[in-house]
Amino acid sequence: MIIDVDGLKFNFATNWQASKYDEWSYYRNQFVKQFAGIKAVDLLAISPKKITFLIEVKDYTHPNTEKPSDLPQAVADKVLNTLAALLPCSLLANDATEKAFAKQVLLSNQLHVVLHMEQPRAHKPVVDAADVLQKLKKLLRAVDAHPKVVSIQNNSILPWNVSK
Q1: Coil, helix or strand for 58?
Q2: Which superkingdom (predicted)?
Q3: Helices vs. strands in the chain: H and E counts, helices first
Q4: Could you give phi then psi for residue 145, rounded to 5 degrees?
Q5: Distance CA 150, CA 133 (A)
C-alpha cells in the first residue's frame, strides 16, 4: 500500500493498515471545529502486531515550506490532538471505515511517534534533527518515550519505505 503525503510516497506492506488521518471526514468536519488551533498528524499506521505509528511529515526541500518557530511543540500538539480525537471518532464518526480504523488504534499494544523530515542536502539543515528529537522525547514521554526523527536517508529503523 502506497500513501502519498506532499510528494513523499510511504510504502507499507499489504498486511498493514495505514491512512491519511488529517484527511478523515471526522477530523475535518467534526473534531477540528471543537476548538481553534486543533491540528493532526499526517498518517496513522497499524502494524500486524497492533503497533500504531503516528507519523508527522515535514519536507523542507520545498522552497515555500514554512518552518514552525517551535517544531517539537507543533508535532507534540498534533500527536496529542490526534490522540484526543480517536476515542470520539471510534464512537461517533459517520464514516464506517474511519470509525473502524480508530477502534483498531484504540486496541493497539503500543504507540510510536515518528517525525519524517526531509531537508535540503546541499545546504545547511533547516532544522537540527538531534535537537528536535531531544525535545520530542521530553514533550511526548507519556505517549512514546522513544520517538523517532527520520528521513529517506535514515529510515532503515522503521518497517516501511519512503521515496520521492
Answers
A1: strand
A2: Bacteria
A3: 4, 8
A4: -70, -15
A5: 10
Which cell numbers in the block locate residue 91?
A: 464512537
Q: Are 43 and 57 in contact (CB under 8 A)?
A: yes
pLDDT tens per residue across span 81-137: 999 999 999 999 999 999 999 999 999 999 999 999 998 877 677 788 899 999 999
Query: For residues 21 and 82, is the Cβ–Cβ distance under 8 A?
Result: yes
φ, ψ of residue 130 in degrees (nearest 5) = -65, -40
Residue among 45, 55, 60, 161 nearest 101 (CA): 45
- Tracing cell 519512503 back to the chain, one arrives at 162
Could you tell me the sign of the dihedral formed by the alpha carbons of 39, 42, 48, 52, in that order?
A: negative
How would you classify the pairing of strands 17-19 and 2-5?
unpaired
- 104 and 110 in contact (C-beta within 8 Å)? no
Single out the residue of 12, 31, 19 nearest to residue 100, CA to CA: 19
Is 70 in a helix, a strand, or coil? coil
Q: Can you give the pTM of this predicted structure?
A: 0.93
